[in-house]
Write the structure tokens for this entry.
Amino acid sequence: MLAYRHAFHAGNHADVLKHLVLTRVLRYMGEKDKPYTLIDTHAGAGGYSVEGRYAQKKGEYGEGIAKLYDRKDLPAPLADYVGLVRAFNPDGQLRQYPGSPAIANLLLRETDRLRAYELHSTDHRILASYLESRPNTQVSDRDGFSAIKAELPSPTRRAALLMDPSYEIKTDYGKVLTALREALERAADTVVMIWYPQLQLLESTQLAARLKASADAGAKKGWLHARLTVAQADERGFGMLGSGMLVVNPPFTLHDELAECLPVLVERLGQYDGANFVLEQKAG
Ligand SMILES: C[S@@+](CC[C@H](N)C(=O)[O-])C[C@H]1O[C@@H](n2cnc3c(N)ncnc32)[C@H](O)[C@@H]1O
């Protein structure tokens, strides 16, 4: 039984980083006429109310998307992502936040394929209903890690993969690593985006280095790592300090786009003086 519900966290600083990167990757993939496949292994419910009970309980979106939503001075890639969030709010007020499948729904063309996996029965039901009429789309209630074997190599050849587990279970760290290796063995040029939480926990602190080593061994076009640290741990060492995205086979445009946006995110979303970012890249 999964306890994690993304509705509590929708629109927080971690979603901002993740969805900014997702938006840039999908924009880039959409520049070529040839269709591509997006595989979203841990898709969530699709969209979330930020006015609802869940989001209001922790108010995390207040420290995330709400700090960007009305800004008119954002760098173009960040303004583009915020524009998608605005498109998800027809009356202009920030009432709903688009999850990764909703961002995909806004950016994928009819010919692009979407494969979304969500294990939680309630969120799966909401997601399946949301994407019901989207062409070339399948929503599965199976384990998202099984998507690697089921979906790769994809019939479109061009593929992007978003792996965004809740890390509710510690074994997710190892599974993500195995899934990346398998994905690169099956299709070495897949654009793989992996989100991870920045916690004071060995599995979390080691993950980026282990993912990079796997990418070094198997990826065609190297990797990019972006991390946004916004908060300090509490006195017991608990709490999420920030989060990171490891992008394997990144678009060549991604580094410069993030170099423009990450300082602004530190400034807008940082919750203490030591807020910072990391941006590093290794060519294939
Ligand atoms: C962080 S949330 C996903 C958020 C979503 N990707 C987004 O950006 O809007 C992680 C989701 O994975 C689901 N989940 C957990 N383990 C899973 C698994 N093994 N396979 C598929 N979904 C899983 C959870 O129910 C949760 O909805």
